[in-house]
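Quarterly update, task 2.4: 3-methyl-2-oxobutanoic acid-bound model.
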Amino acid sequence: MSVQKKVKRVTTHVLSEMKLKGEKISMLTAYDFSMAQIIDNAGIDVILVGDSASNVMAGNETTLPITLDQMIYHGASVVRGVDRALVVVDLPFGSYQGNSKEALCSAIRIMKETSADAVKLEGGREVVESVTRILSAGIPGIPIMGHLGLTPQSIHKFGTYVVRAQEDAEAKKLIEDAHLLEEAGCFAIVLEKIPAKLAAQVAKELTIPIIGIGAGGGVDGQVLVIHDMLGINQEFSPRFLRRYHNLYAEMTGAVGNYINDVKSGNFPNEREQY
Ligand code: KIV
């Protein structure tokens, strides 16, 4: 008889209980099976299949080029590697901004073709109709995570990746948008690159978990892009990023050693052949 590994899965309900208990939520991105397996086994609470795949996996300058089919490929690969974490897949640029019907069709495709637990989309008031429509799909609908502050899919509207909502008017709109997303039924919101004081205020006012990236420590959890926190990605060094490793150097060194061993005839040795 095979022994089945029993793990208690992280659900949206577990996340809201964590907020109630004041227990911080850990979230990282992943885009493939192997990385998802590693970070799930390490005990991460939420895995985001972010459209940052467009940057770190495909080498694009922005998140705009990645397609729905490509997000589905990454999402399905990640889900196959995960036993415990809640998996959220980004709705990519162009798959939900057109109208709420298109948003619903895109969200359904992600849920059916990846078996992920939830989707994430960027924006406030502009996307509330889509959020409502997606959440009306069946019972209990499709869980949605919001994303406010720096929203990389709007790069051509804002023109830069600087800290958002530093002016009163934008801060006020962000607070209103956060309330609208909560009222529409989002189970959590990511706040990216905004003043820590503002993020803490949003986390205090809302009952749903607020996950920050460059939004200070007064929120309910943190998210980072895995390539950035492992130091695979050398060029990206914003102030909010803490690097937990220098994998770029480690991997370059390992590849260098392999090349030397092949060239010198040191690899393979007698024990490494048949
Ligand atoms: O796509 C992504 O990786 C994200 C995170 C930065 C929150 O949206």
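Highlight for this quarter: Residues 29, 48, 50-52, 90, 147, 190, 192, 213, 223, 225 surround 3-methyl-2-oxobutanoic acid (CB under 6 Å).
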